Amino acid sequence: MADFLTLFAPLDMHLHLRDDGMLRAVGPASAADFAGAVIMPNLVPPVDSLAAMRAYRDRIEAATADYDFTPFMTLFFRDYSDAELAAARDEIIGIKLYPAGVTTNSEAGVKEISGYDRQLSAMQELDIPLLVHGESHGFVLDREQEFLAVYRTLAKRYPRLRIVMEHITTAAAAALLDEFENLYATVTLHHLIITLNDVAGGLLQPHLFCKPIAKRPEDRDALLAAALGAHPKLMFGSDSAPHPRSKKEACGCAAGVFSAPTAVPLLADLFDRNGALASLQAFIGDNARHIYRLPEQDKTVRLVRKPQTLIAEFADLVVFGGGETIAWSVEGA
Amino acid sequence: MADFLTLFAPLDMHLHLRDDGMLRAVGPASAADFAGAVIMPNLVPPVDSLAAMRAYRDRIEAATADYDFTPFMTLFFRDYSDAELAAARDEIIGIKLYPAGVTTNSEAGVKEISGYDRQLSAMQELDIPLLVHGESHGFVLDREQEFLAVYRTLAKRYPRLRIVMEHITTAAAAALLDEFENLYATVTLHHLIITLNDVAGGLLQPHLFCKPIAKRPEDRDALLAAALGAHPKLMFGSDSAPHPRSKKEACGCAAGVFSAPTAVPLLADLFDRNGALASLQAFIGDNARHIYRLPEQDKTVRLVRKPQTLIAEFADLVVFGGGETIAWSVEGA
Predict the structure, then answer these.
(1) Strand pairing of A183-187 and A163-165?
(2) pLDDT of residue A114
(3) Torsion of Cα atoms, A266 then A271 then A273 then A275, to 10°
(4) What is the pLDDT of residues B281-305, one digit of tens each?
(5) Which one of A49, A132, A148, B46 is CB 3.0 to 4.6 Å from B76, fit for a cystine?
(6) 3-state DSSP call for residue A200?
(7) How many CB pairs under 8 A join A and B?
């Protein structure tokens, strides 16, 4: 039984760092344990120009200056010119699509997206990955499944475009990884652990409420099996999404689970309990480095088998797994 | 188009009035618009003796003394002696079963309940209805469906026992009404209107969180069709369940929707919008009077087609439908 585990350049491939005071609060939590992260562009207003992206990157670098941490930047999907795409290409890791026009009718969704053929073709030619929040506007439990038809259409129409299904939550989405060569996925920590039962089976737990919402046990089990089996097309992306407590414990609770401070030790504990510690390196870094063709980074994070009770609060934020006692700790944390 | 509607002795066949200060606050809201209600016995400690039931009834009568309102009392299911059942019979409307021992395995549930054969046989002989919170301990969306096997077994084993499936939420439970003569059901107002999408499809809405949790659109539609069609075995039961705001907008939100102050006008509006005003009297009173063989009551509640914006707060409670403008008002309210 291993008592130490060294992770080489762990990556969080889906992260919300927000901005300003919140960025300064949560940035260090991710930067301490990760070598880099894919930064979501959904600020208000969204990060949808090279200038806005560079300014945001500067603010992130300032907030994480004490750490060896690389923010991999994204742009918010809109109708970019070929020149804009070419100019952005070397400074972004991908473009993030929130399909606002997609309805329960996935055909309509495809049509909506097919209006962007010029841009998607250009992204394919420039080798800019497309990151997708893949949900329809249908019934909350069906949204991801209804969106799979859009993924299929995109994957077929742009066979050289790397398409990342972000924060997948269903067995059906995981199965799609094996159907199309150019489809990849991120999965969160919490979707490997919780189901809708944890959110709403007892008292309602606003701090476990997120989008896409946690699904059925068989979905969670399929995602966990893929992660523990080091599926080469599946990457860790925390989707850590901080909201102040006043926005969570409220009439109209914002969606998002905040897991940045606890993700790495919780993942080690989860993989260890399932006898799959050997798969963690692939899941938390190597797969992503391969899929996104990222340069090597020499940061290491050392975990030790030392019980710890996870912090429950971080600034004004309730932390995923907080209060739990687990077997692994990040050394020096 | 009718501009007035007189309801004769409307009944709420599933109501939580709580106790003490909360009872004094919410009791009048139900007593104003209803001629009577079936009072749930799940106080702490539960109402599980004739003496406790009588004392609780006295407190309810004191809290609703200004109104023509009859509390139909229930006892909390436990192992009652035949003498206790015989003594209670004329003062209770039924015994409410919360199947704490029922697991995801509905067979185990049946076995658990079959340990009460003597009592259930005695209830059948004494003609005391059995009111059931019919959920397994399984995955939150499957609990009612998993429990249906228990209903089937009970209905077959005690063919003269009137069994009421409380607050049904699924199309499958509604269908069971037509399968067994001795199965009846209550349904809430909110389960005729909302689905899980309203609870968790946008921002999470703690004030719409209840048990059993709201289900799929096709479930809601089946329940609504049965209510609008005046299904003779389906009764209105609000399951109005007040929790102070601090217990709802919280880390660990209590289950319950508070609809007592708005239920009658909202039902009139709902039935009217669906062209089924003529079915409301059956749903909100006549069916229950027939099923439970209740004496006639001469209270009437008169509704007028007069737009109103429903109150959003009642004491410290957030009210179902609050803030909505609807076409019907209770006259004099």
Answers:
(1) parallel
(2) 73
(3) -170
(4) 999 999 999 999 999 999 999 999 9
(5) B46
(6) helix
(7) 79
Whether pLDDT at A110 is above 80: no
CA end-to-end span of chain A: 22
Q: What is the DSSP string of A87-137?
A: HHGGG-SEEEE--TT--SSHHHHHHHHHTTHHHHHHHHHHT--EEE----S
Contact between residue A35 and residue A19 where contact means Cβ atoms under 8 Å apart = no
- Report the DSSP beta bridge partners of residue A132: A97, A165
CA distance B182 to B167: 17
Q: Which residues of A77-106 are buried (b: 16+ CB within 10 A; e: fewer)?
A: beebeeebbeebeeebbbbbbbbeebeeeb
Cis status of the peptide bond prior to A217, with omega within 30 of 0: no
Q: Which of A239, A269, A272, A286 is catalytic?
A: A239
Q: What is the pTM of this model?
A: 0.94
Reported confidence tier of residue A95, pLDDT bands at 50, 70, 90: very high
Rounded Cα–Cα distance for residues B313 and B252 (Å): 21
Asked whether residue B104 carries a pLDDT value surpassing 50, the answer given is no
Structure tokens at B120: 């259930």
Q: Tell if the CB–CB gap between A251 and B207 is shorter than 8 Å.
A: yes
Q: Which residues of A lie closer than 8 Å to B, measured between beta carbons?
A: 139-141, 195-197, 199-207, 209, 213, 216-217, 248-255, 318
Length of chain B: 333
Residues 6+ positions from B249 with CB-CB distance below 8 Å: A249, A250, A251, B206
CA B222 to CA B169: how far, in whole Å? 9
B contacts of A216 (beta carbons < 8 Å)? 139, 141
The C-alpha atoms of residue A94 and residue A144 are separated, in whole angstroms, by 21
* Tokens of residue B260, six digits: 């007592």
Classify residue A210 by its DSSP letter.
Answer: -
- Residue found under tokens 């009392």: B73
Give the pLDDT confidence score for residue B114 in this predicted structure. 73
Is position A239 annotated as part of the catalytic site? yes
- Cis, bond preceding B242 (omega within 30 deg of 0): no
Q: Which single residue is written with the structure tokens 């809430």?
A: B188
> Is B203's CB within 8 Å of A318's CB?
no
Query: Which tokens in the block code for residue B9?
Result: 């002795």
Is B4-330 CATH 3.20.20.140? yes
Instruction: Report the DSSP pairing between strands B317-318 and B313-314.
Output: antiparallel
Are A240 and A257 contacting, i.e. CB atoms less than 8 angstroms apart? Answer: yes
Residue A35 near residue A285 (C-beta atoms within 8 A): yes
How far is the C-alpha of A256 from the C-alpha of A209, rounded, in Å? 6
Q: Which two tokens stand for residue B327?
A: 């076409």
3 state SS of A187: strand
Mutation for A interface: B204, B205, B209, most A CBs within 10 A: B204
- Alpha-carbon gap, residue B93 to A100, rounded angstroms: 52
CA distance A208 to A200: 9
A201/B199 Cβ within 8 A: no
| Residue A212, both tokens | 């896409």
Residues B204, A201: C-beta atoms closer than 8 Å: no
Residue located via tokens 């250009």: A122
Angular region, A18: left φ>0, alpha ψ -120 to 50, beta rest: left
Tell me which chain A residues have a C-beta less than 8 angstroms from the C-beta of B207.
Answer: 251
List the one residue out of A308, A73, A317, A319 whose CA is nearest residue A190.
A319
Place of tokens 């999408």: B197
User: Which 8-state DSSP code applies to residue A216?
Assistant: -
Q: ipTM score here? A: 0.93
Q: Return d(Cα A266, Cα B80) in angstroms, integer.
A: 49
Under 8 Å CB-to-CB from A46, ≥6 apart: which residues?
A: A76
Max CA-CA distance within chain B?
54
